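As noted in the main text, all predictions were made from sequence alone. Below is one such record, for Sugar phosphate transporter domain-containing protein.
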Amino acid sequence: INIELPHEQAQMEAAQKLKIGLYFATWWALNVVFNIYNKKVLNAFPYPWLTSTLSLAAGSLMMLISWATRIAEAPKVDLNFWKALLPVAVAHTIGHVAATVSMSKVAVSFTHIIKSGEPAFSVLVSSLMLGESFPMPVYLSLIPIIGGCALAAVTELNFNMTGFMGAMVSNLAFVFRNIFSKKGMKGMSVSGMNYYACLSMMSLLILTPFAIAVEGPKIWAAGWQTAVSQIGPNFVWWVVAQSVFYHLYNQVSYMSLDQISPLTFSIGNTMKRICVIVSSILIFHNPVQPINALGAAIAILGTFLYSQAKQ
Ligand code: 3PG
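Prediction:
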């Protein structure tokens, strides 16, 4: 039976679709810019612990200024909010620094190909650790995801174990981040933008001592001088760009998460990775063998099959 929607409802639905479409396009564009500047910085200044910290610091500062000047309204949060946020922030910090360490060792495209396997981690963690079970097609969709990632990894010309493991650890950490944030967000009335702002601040506090312990100011000062002498004063702007764009893309992604289901979000995230993989290969002229590209394509196709199966 063909029931026509009332005109107003149809209009509202179209407006909502347009809004989400705009969020997605903005999220992907900001993410592509972040990935490019992040890699440009890491090529000249291979200290991912500092660049990860600066990304969180830029976001925290931008949000504090926005709250102080009332560009954005500060959230009303209590101790329970921060307690619930702690495991999310630990997982976010690990996932972020691990991805950045990975990108400092391998091509951006390679990190994102491995990161397109995140749904496989999600299913494995949920089944093995949380005792959840899924319909058979969901498990079957893991075959192309894992197989495609494995094929891309073994045929990667510039394979590096730290780069590979960083992306794998990031996948695992982000699965936990998503599980914890789902639990932590329940019953809280904080917007996606403010939730991400608080997450940045807490992650910054967690990451800073580790960044100092792993790399430290002496190494940073020497590395900074070398980078500025090689690149020139523009290097500072690259660092600013990677930091600011990191915050912006995450903020927009959390704002869209507010409006959509986690499943739609994960489909959007995979499409984002396609944009990043293609643009970074074009910009950095990474050599890609056909078999390597095939692996990436199979993994991404697997992610789409996974989202279909989960639906
Ligand atoms: C990071 O630095 O946190 C990673 O680039 C994040 O990756 P994602 O947001 O694309 O999962």
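Residues 96, 99-100, 115, 174 surround 3-phosphoglyceric acid (CB under 6 Å). The mean pLDDT is 92. These features were considered when defining construct boundaries for the mutagenesis experiments described in Section 2.9.
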